[in-house]
Amino acid sequence: MTECLIAKVKHLDTHKLMQLVDESKSEGFFHLERLVTDYGTGTNTFDKNGEALFLVLKNSEIVGVCGLNQDPFSDSKKVGRVRRLYVSPSVNSQNETHFLELS
Q1: Which of 42, 51, 86, 88 could form a disulfide with 63 if both were Cys (CB 3.0 to 4.6 A apart)?
Q2: Is the Cα torsion angle 40, 68, 55, 102 positive or negative in sign?
Q3: Are the CB atoms for 56 and 99 separated by under 8 Å?
Q4: Is 16:7 a contact under the CB 8 Å cutoff?
Q5: Which domains does the chain show, CATH number per domain?
Q6: What is the pLDDT of residues 21-35, one digit of tens each?
Q7: Spatial contact of 97 and 91, defined as CB atoms under 8 Å apart
């Protein structure tokens, strides 16, 4: 059984995410590149009230990412938007993968 850890991060080292960015681009997904750009410029750092950024780690390697933002189209602060979700096919396609912890 492959075990993965989901970790909430306060600061993203975008350099550590580049392998996942390259992998996602090779599949035709460019939203992680946007995540890195927006995070670097401060446009979206997932630091508003109720927002969060999560990494999926397998053997200390980043194999997934997901952000949660406030929904700009809702008046309720209890409504969020999942943003920049990506999980590596090497993990996503394994039925035996279990996510251990949501921090």
Answers
A1: 88
A2: positive
A3: yes
A4: no
A5: 3-102 (3.40.630.30)
A6: 999 999 999 999 999
A7: yes
